[in-house]
From TrEMBL:
Residues 1-10 have a biased composition (Basic and acidic residues). This is Septin. Residues 344-422 form a coiled coil. The keyword Nucleotide-binding applies. Residues 62-328 form the Septin-type G domain. Residues 427-438 have a biased composition (Polar residues). Belongs to the TRAFAC class TrmE-Era-EngA-EngB-Septin-like GTPase superfamily. Septin GTPase family.
Amino acid sequence: MASAEVERVRVSSTKPPLPDPSTKPVVGKVRQVDGPIRNLKLSGHVGFDSLPDQLVNKSVQNGFIFNILCIGETGLGKSTLMDSLFNTSFESSASPHSLPSVKLKAHTYELQESNVRLKLTIVDTVGYGDQINKEDSFKAIVDYIDAQFESYLQEELKIKRSLATFHDTRIHVCLYFICPTGHGLKSIDLMCMKKLDTKVNIIPIIAKADTISKTELQKFKEKIVHELSNNGVQIYQFPVDDENVTEVNAQMNSHVPFAVVGSTDFVRVGNKMMRSRQYPWGTVQVENESHCDFVKLREMLIRTNMEDMREKTHMRHYELYRKKRLEQMGFTDVDSDNKPVSFQQSFEQKRSHHLQELQQKEDEMRQMFVNRVKEKELELKDEEKDLHSKFDKLKKDHSEEKRKLDELRKTMEEDIIEFNRRKTQIAQQQALSSSHHTLTLGKSKKK
Ligand SMILES: Nc1nc2c(ncn2[C@@H]2O[C@H](COP(=O)(O)OP(=O)(O)O)[C@@H](O)[C@H]2O)c(=O)[nH]1
Ligand SMILES: [Mg+2]
């Protein structure tokens, strides 16, 4: 096969000046084979500057998917915060504290803002922290996250895949609700976040921040950050590589964990209804930045970094899962000499290895079968021999018995003959003696 020629030409376009008839277009003339990429000027408007618009239109048409996992003890305000974040009511029902284990419940909603559709899935950890033994609380969560990765991987590995219409349920962000104790993280918090930090983007938040005083809150935040870094827990960092958001994201990274307040109640402030919590001593406004970090969280989670979280989920967390799973299946990018191998080579190698193993197993089983048959044959032969000798003995016993019986019969027959002979003899003697007696009687009568 002839090796393919690689032609790389880079043509750059600034906003097109009016075409100058004296300069001939260079596009297509300058060709570099396997050389460096060159910048070229376009001498007229081509139109690929509409690519971003095309992308936007397509994305808007398809709609977006975003999946949030809320982890936190029952009653920490997870459902209320979700209602507050999306400014709606998801109509969730309160869960009891009596569940024997942690269960994950997902609900999917279709939301629309202007012409942008969002398929939002909120996954709740029902019963989290309610068991006496909390050691295994994270297991159900890890399993759930992996199960979503697995179903995406299975779709991806199908021959006929429909990823465009596939409902991607991979978790894009995990909001970890920290109890506002002021005493730092609980061991369940650290353990759970540590188990999840390679699987999902974690944003820790301090729940019900209105129950903790301002000075305590600052110390609490510092303590949490310290404990997270001491335990090597990697939480999600808002990206600073996009210059449009570098500054705001860098600043927001220093505010994590956000201390939030949620509410389903509204209070009139001026001529506007504001989400607030009312107390005898005053009102906490959810969207007031001097009252809590709710606005910061909404800004970071929904308005600035939603796409980054979707991307990181796919490029980092899913990629890691996929790598592990493919390696488990026996695929690799390099051979034993560290030389690159293609997926096909790797697959064929795995297949031939598998076939070899199968053949070996089949041979082993066949050999085992032959051995078993041989053993059984020997056993049967032994049993047959036994039976034969038993039969011979029985035959011998029988003929011996028969012989004895014959002898007995013979003796008995002789005895009978003797008996009969003697019987006749006695009968004769009796007859003779009775006739003699009659004779004697007769003689005496005559006298
Ligand atoms: N003080 C305070 N109470 C809250 C806050 N958010 C929710 N709550 C209350 O806490 C209770 C449980 O809230 P819910 O959202 O059902 O908790 P979930 O079990 O974590 O979903 C409800 O009575 C809420 O009104 C908050 O930010 N501050
Ligand atoms: Mg709830």
